[in-house]
Write a structure and sequence with these properties.
The chain is an alpha+beta fold. The protein is 25% helix and 36% strand. The chain has helices at residues 30-49, 133-152, and strands at residues 3-5, 11-16, 52-58, 72-82, 86-97, 102-116, 127-129. The strands form 2 sheets. Strands 2-4-5-6-3 form a 5-stranded antiparallel sheet. The chain starts with a strand and ends in a 5-residue tail after the last helix.
């Protein structure tokens, strides 16, 4: 099976929060943010495996800092580990108020994806090669997170 460097899976997506994206408090709706996160993470996973991917799970997502109407949202996604047919993707969300020169981290999460072939069946994915210390840290901890996900879902690893 082929191998790919973690850096080759990096995706950055930028969105402007418009009035239709907000709730009555002028904050970005959580469902809209999760949609954006899923899209950015899916593109990262697809770059890794060159196949269609489907979301298998999303780890705990907390909304630490509200994102306001008019903010520019930057989502950064990168595959942290590849297993046999699945991949874990780490995603960070940053909100920036450009006129105020204020940028804050709003969210982070781990998404899991499964690669599918043309028949919709799980397909093996390339091995991931972590290079930086941070990539190695995410990579090593991914096995523990995967075990926890599978146990939570009632399946063994």
């Amino acid at each position: 099976m082929a191998q790919k460097k973690a850096s080759s899976t990096e995706v950055t997506m930028t969105q402007l929060v418009l009035p239709n994206d907000t709730n009555n408090l002028d904050n970005l709706r959580g469902g809209k943010l999760l949609h954006w996160m899923d899209l950015a993470a899916a593109v990262s996973a697809q770059k890794h495996c060159n196949n269609i991917v489907v979301t298998a799970s999303v780890d705990h997502v907390s909304f630490e800092n509200p994102i306001k109407r008019g903010d520019v949202v930057t989502l950064k996604a990168k595959v942290t580990r590849a297993f046999r047919t699945s991949m874990e993707v780490f995603i960070e969300v940053w909100a920036e108020n450009i006129p105020a020169r204020r940028k804050v981290k709003s969210n982070e999460a781990y998404f899991s994806f499964v690669a599918l072939n043309d028949l919709g069946k799980p397909e093996p994915v390339p091995e991931l090669i972590p290079e930086t210390d941070l990539e190695k840290e995410h990579y090593n901890a991914a096995a523990v997170r995967r075990t926890q996900r599978l146990e939570h879902a009632g399946r063994r690893s």
